[in-house]
Amino acid sequence: MSFFKRLSGHLHTINRHRYLVMKMCFKCGMYYQGLTHDLSKYSFQEFWPSVRYYQGYRSPITKEKLTIGYSECWLHHKGRNKHHYEYWIDRHPKSEEMFVIRMPFRYMLESVIDRISASKVYNKDKYTENEPYEFFINSRDCACMNKQTAEDISKLLLYLKENGEKKALAYYKSLYKIHKNDREFTL
User: Fold this and answer.
1) Predicted confidence band of residue 96 (pLDDT cuts 50, 70, 90)
2) I need a surface site. Which of 46, 53, 115, 143 has the fewest CB within 10 A?
3) What's the half-sphere exposure (Cβ side, CA atoms, 13 Å) at 12?
4) Is the dihedral of CA 62, 52, 38, 40 positive or negative?
5) Domain assignment present for 8
6) Would you give the distance in Å from CA 96 to the centre of its chain?
7) Residue 140: what pLDDT?
8) Is residue 184, in this structure, part of any structural domain at all?
9) Could you tell me if residue 36 is inside a domain?
10) How many domains would you assign to the chain?
């Protein structure tokens, strides 16, 4: 694939993804998060490696990991975007013990919306409301994700699968009104 096809394809993909996330975040009352979602994808450290590894049917991060064994793009991205559970992993400075912190509600919900949007962008016409839930269940790394965060994401994606997007977004909005600033909450 030519450089210009990869460039235009990647730019279209991230713009489409951000548009879908913004639209869903706005429906949930999450205006700031909708506007600022994934802005780091336009940074030099993320944009150009993603153009290099662009394929159109999956994240360029996957191709970069398969090609060189890791992804500098991903390392940059996850450290700047609180809607990724990897952002919430830390190590104690003295004991070196790993802490896998529960995601605050607003970022956990943004993560759910991010997964729905990514499923739509990469699956295109083949997208179904089952896809985000099935992908999450089949690909999550439970050893690295906070167990309560994993359960919360699973419940919200299952709600989408069972009730459809319109009802799910209305439900998410009602939860956001109650829990938007909460780190401890019950779904």
Assistant:
1) confident
2) 143
3) 13
4) positive
5) yes
6) 28
7) 67
8) no
9) yes
10) 1
Full domain range(s) for residue 147: 3-179
Average pLDDT value for residue range 116-137? 94
User: Does position 20 have pLDDT exceeding 80, yes or no?
Assistant: yes
- Separation CA 170–CA 20 (nearest Å): 16
Cβ 169 vs Cβ 24: under 8 Å: yes
The more confidently predicted of residues 186 and 49 is: 49
Contact at 8 Å (CB) between 145 and 173?
A: no
What is the rounded distance in angstroms from the CA atom of residue 46 to the CA atom of residue 17?
Answer: 15
Q: How far apart are CA 33 and CA 42, in angstroms?
A: 16
Is the pLDDT at 176 greater than 70? The verdict is yes
Residue 39 resides in a domain: yes
Long-range contacts of residues 68-76, Cβ cutoff 8 Å, at least 24 apart: 72/45, 73/45, 73/46, 73/49, 76/40, 76/43, 76/45, 76/46
Residue listed under structure tokens 């419940």? 155
Higher-pLDDT residue of 73, 140:
73
Stretch 111-128: mean pLDDT, rounded?
Answer: 95
